[in-house]
From TrEMBL:
This is GPP34 family phosphoprotein. Transmembrane segments: none annotated. Signal peptide: none annotated. Keywords: Golgi apparatus, Lipid-binding, Membrane. It comes from Streptomonospora algeriensis. It is found in: Golgi apparatus membrane. It is a peripheral membrane protein.
Length: 227
């Protein structure tokens, strides 16, 4: 019997945007990509109602029901198991690991967001590429572009995804037609909107600053690379 396809989560959507369909390589350096994935995973737990952010920016579990998605539930369980509440930046630092990136790439392949291909450079060095389906990626970029430009009203998920995209500095590659100053202004305005909910606004603002801080503290990553 075939296993049902797992529901897509924010990390899947982020990987769809973060990998080039022509090259199968990430459009952000490794550290930004891993920080972005960590932030997206945290945002997913908040959107699912499993985790909340207090007034000091620390994460707490809510005691809500499990989602049935192991990556989301497992992240909430890690938050619950921590002896004291920690800020989003601390969690981004903890989750910013190669193992998480590899695991979430495998998950994205499983749910059909990416296609994994293996080959060798000079017949020696193994290289993995992860290609999104061009039409799927184009639709996803256009949907976010519509939200960014105000053509479509933002929902909590699109607002959170745009926040992570902005924190990773992917916005310049995805929305190159929008001048940089206008892009940043619009991304900030989205994070401040009242209609996406207080909890989501909090996680967006926390993740933006956390990803930026972790990237700066670690020197900005290794300049790119494969999955």
């Amino acid at each position: 019997m075939n296993q049902p396809i797992a529901p897509r989560i924010l990390t899947d959507d982020l990987l769809l945007l973060a990998y080039g369909p022509d090259t199968g390589r990430p459009l952000a350096d490794t550290n930004r990509l891993q920080c972005g994935l960590a932030g997206a995973l945290i945002a997913e737990t908040v959107l699912a109602g499993l985790v909340a952010i207090d007034g000091d920016g620390r994460l707490h579990t809510t005691g809500s029901h499990r989602t049935g998605v192991p990556d989301v539930d497992g992240t909430a369980e890690r938050v619950a198991a921590e002896p004291r509440p920690r800020k989003v930046k601390w969690w981004v630092q903890q989750l910013n690991k190669r193992q998480l990136r590899q695991h979430l790439l495998g998950r994205a392949v499983h749910v059909g967001v990416l296609t994994q291909q293996s080959h060798r450079v000079l017949r020696i060095l193994p290289v993995e590429t992860y290609r999104p389906e061009p039409e799927d990626r184009e639709r996803a970029v256009w949907a976010l572009h519509s939200v960014l430009m105000g053509y479509a009203a933002p929902d909590s998920r699109s607002a959170a995804l745009l926040a992570v995209v902005g924190a990773m500095r992917l916005d310049g590659k995805l929305f190159a037609d929008v001048p940089a100053r206008e892009r940043r202004k619009r991304l900030k305005a989205l994070a401040d909107r009242d209609d996406i909910g207080r909890a989501v606004r909090q996680v967006i603002q926390s993740i933006e600053s956390a990803v930026a801080a972790v990237v700066v503290s670690s020197g900005g990553g290794d300049g790119g690379g494969g999955g």
